[in-house]
């Protein structure tokens, strides 16, 4: 009887989820951004997603109505101009319509879009839900200082001018400390690598411990700067581990130029010579690499035009993402849901452009300084005809090379260590499959670390699921090719390329919520500055 009751309850729960008629449970015990119990925002208009007068939020609140704001005429006009009409009453939502001076629980991303455009409203910190910080990827100091910078000091216990000025000074001081440490750590690591007799493992352990702990212990209160500095820490962490894979007799002889070139490009002259001497099968495919002699005026003109196009595409994606709040999905994307498909497509554009801009602007000047070859981070990933093609050849090649050295090659060497290996013989297929899984597992671990240091309060595990699914699918694809001859004896030509492209893009989009969810919810990829009037102009056509 008890089993029957449990099965009936489970069936009822599943049916309620499918029908969308589940009862709304009002959350209790939530905190504000100050870390104290959440206070009432407004009783006169009964605001909040649950219309309790407080900015409580829960699973049903996809828009995250967490900011208790005192709206202004300019704020309301801007929101209406980007398609978010807060002036007109909507009886079906028990929404009375707002006017100048009203207090209301505003969607966090909507409030942030107004902040970026220069239309800031005063907020009640004691009534603003703590989840605002997670959604926006901001600190309490960020919210307080932004209000002062824009002439609207935040309401609440810490909203006075003296406190805000102290916060501005604190922000500048923390930024200086973070920048100094970001310069100091590579100096310490480089000195140990080039001038000490410590082993690779000792130097890698010491360096990685410092690099992983410092971003957590010394955060910068400026969120945009903090994201950039933590991104550098992650980048340098991978390079630190990668350097340990080379013979100690080689990397001990590096000069400062060799060290800097490797940090920037994952290669230098000694590494290129070593890899050219190794008895390994040469790949048919090689990344597009621009040698110093090829960097002519015409090349830089093409780079400039590409950066301009990428910036415009980023601005379009950012404008769309700010206007249409991201709807969080817990699993896979339904490819037939047009609105959600459009949301993820536009965020993918923003994500792609943000990474390309950051990498190009950060790496190209360094390779010019060291007169080193330059390898672009992407090779038209939107044309990939398989997941293997996407991850091995087209997406984030410099990091792919690092993971290849840290996981794929060591795993193959471990599996092949028998003393009977024939020189030049290709490893068994199952060896390559296990090595592929190890590479995707390391990538999953790295991306979980990125989420941990960049996005406060975000749940973990979805990136691991995403990368392990793709690892298994890559293995299945290789096995299918070997077993069926697809792509060699059949399955070639324009038609099959189009079919393969459609299948690849479908898999990427269906699984992408697992990967992009934390970044889309937090807004961390929307930090590249775009003028407010430009965003406003673009949003008028969306």
Give an overview of the whole structure.
The protein folds into three domains: 26-159, Phenylalanyl-tRNA Synthetase, Chain B, domain 1; 163-277, no CATH class; 292-416 and 428-539, no CATH class. Helices cover 60% and strands 2% of the residues. It is built from 19 helices and three strands. α5 crosses α6, α12 (297-323) packs antiparallel against α13 (338-370) and α13 (338-370) crosses α18. The protein starts with a helix and ends with a helix. Mean pLDDT is 81; it is low at 1-23 and 148-165. Pfam families: DUF2237, MBOAT_2. Keywords: Acyltransferase, Membrane, Signal, Transferase, Transmembrane, Transmembrane helix. This is Long-chain-alcohol O-fatty-acyltransferase. Its main location: membrane.
How many structural domains in the coordinates? 3
Number of helices: 19
- Spell out the helices and strands N to C: HEHEHEHHHHHHHHHHHHHHHH
Average pLDDT metric: 81
Per DSSP E runs of 2 or more residues, the count of β-strands stands at: 3
Q: Unreliable stretches, pLDDT < 50, 5 or more residues?
A: 1-23, 148-165
Please give the order of strands in the largest beta sheet: 2-1-3
Helix content: 55-70%
Roughly how many Å apart are the termini? Answer: 56 Å
**Structural class, please?**
mainly alpha
């Amino acid at each position: 009887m008890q089993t029957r009751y449990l099965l009936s309850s489970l069936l009822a729960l599943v049916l309620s989820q499918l029908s969308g008629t589940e009862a709304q449970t009002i959350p209790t015990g939530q905190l504000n951004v100050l870390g104290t119990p959440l206070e009432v925002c407004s009783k006169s208009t009964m605001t909040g997603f649950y219309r309790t007068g407080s900015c409580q939020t829960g699973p049903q609140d996809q828009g995250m109505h967490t900011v208790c704001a005192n709206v202004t005429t300019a704020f309301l006009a801007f929101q209406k101009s980007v398609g978010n009409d807060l002036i007109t009453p909507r009886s079906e939502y028990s929404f009375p319509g707002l006017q100048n001076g009203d207090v209301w629980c505003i969607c966090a991303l909507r409030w942030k879009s107004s902040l970026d455009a220069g239309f800031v409203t005063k907020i009640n910190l004691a009534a603003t839900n703590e989840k605002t910080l997670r959604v926006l990827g901001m600190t309490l100091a960020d919210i307080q200082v932004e209000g002062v910078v824009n002439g609207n000091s935040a309401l609440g216990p810490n909203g006075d001018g003296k406190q805000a000025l102290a916060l501005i000074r604190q922000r500048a001081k923390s930024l200086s400390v973070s920048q100094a440490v970001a310069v100091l750590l590579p100096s310490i690591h480089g000195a140990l690598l080039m001038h000490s007799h410590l082993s690779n493992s000792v130097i890698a352990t010491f360096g990685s411990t410092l690099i992983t702990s410092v971003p957590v212990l010394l955060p910068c209160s400026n969120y945009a700067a903090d994201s950039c500095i933590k991104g550098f820490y992650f980048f340098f962490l991978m390079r630190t581990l990668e350097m340990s894979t080379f013979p100690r007799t080689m990397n001990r002889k590096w000069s400062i130029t060799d060290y800097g070139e490797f940090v920037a490009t994952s290669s230098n002259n000694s590494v290129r010579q070593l890899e050219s001497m190794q008895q390994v099968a040469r790949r048919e495919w090689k990344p597009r690499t621009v040698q110093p002699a090829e960097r002519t005026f015409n090349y830089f003109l093409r780079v400039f035009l590409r950066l301009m196009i990428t910036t415009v595409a980023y601005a379009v994606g950012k404008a769309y993402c700010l206007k249409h709040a991201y709807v969080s999905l817990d699993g896979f994307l339904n490819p037939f849901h047009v609105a959600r498909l459009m949301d993820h497509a536009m965020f993918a554009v923003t994500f792609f452009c943000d990474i390309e801009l950051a990498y190009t602007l950060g790496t190209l000047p360094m390779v010019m300084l060291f007169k080193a070859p330059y390898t672009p981070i992407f090779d038209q990933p939107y044309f990939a005809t398989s997941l293997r093609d996407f991850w091995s050849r087209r997406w984030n090649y410099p990091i792919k090379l690092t993971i290849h050295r840290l996981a794929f090659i060591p795993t193959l060497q471990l599996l092949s260590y028998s003393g009977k290996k024939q020189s030049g013989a290709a490893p068994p297929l199952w060896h390559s499959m296990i090595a592929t899984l190890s590479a995707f597992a390391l990538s999953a671990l790295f991306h979980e670390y990125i989420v941990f240091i960049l996005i406060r309060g975000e749940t973990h595990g979805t990136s691991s699921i995403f990368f392990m699914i793709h690892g298994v699918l890559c293995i299945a694809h290789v096995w299918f090719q070997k077993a069926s001859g697809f792509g060699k004896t059949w399955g070639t030509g324009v038609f099959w390329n189009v079919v393969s492209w459609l299948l690849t893009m479908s898999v990427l989009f269906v699984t992408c919520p697992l990967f992009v969810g934390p970044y889309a919810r937090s807004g961390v990829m929307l930090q590249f500055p775009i003028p407010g009037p430009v965003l406003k102009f673009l949003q008028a056509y969306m």
